[in-house]
């Protein structure tokens, strides 16, 4: 009797093991080789959806990145952002104040959606703020005040760029800026990547000039080892700003 009981238990365990190893696929995870496992984009398993998307390709030993064709920015605190931009624009009319002061340049959290030529979209978080010294970085639009922006992506990148400016084109003379930076790059000078991009900021359609900032990714793009970056501090000699520490001065 004891032998029969032990045999029954072993048979039951073997049966359970067989069922677990050959059960139906639930559609969430697929296994290929022993060292390769990937998760499908299944709405039932949102944790399996990649937080960002892979858009980089390797060419001639270097990484090249797809350039987005559209950028959508939605500020978390829309009302506070709109109020701040409007007050910055109004301050231009005050006698003796023709610049955008630092009081209007606080950072705001925002969600960002980058759309690429093949139609795929990448979602990210970002910190944004008003950019620009002079009042020409603010202009009235059909649906509100448009402004040049300083953007820092938190986890992704736009064509390999994490820190960048979004200039209203007229503040950089539009096509002239693209031509000048492209020419400088072609003749071997270090030049920030610059291109036009269509954007939507809180529902307002705007065409921007995207230009990378001088940060680590700029060095990596130009195959330069990480090292100190020296750049001129434009505040020197300008009387409208205070001489204090800034993340833009290294």
Automatic annotation (TrEMBL):
Region of interest: Disordered: 226-250
Record's compositionally biased regions (Basic and acidic residues): 232-250
Protein name, as recorded: Uncharacterized protein
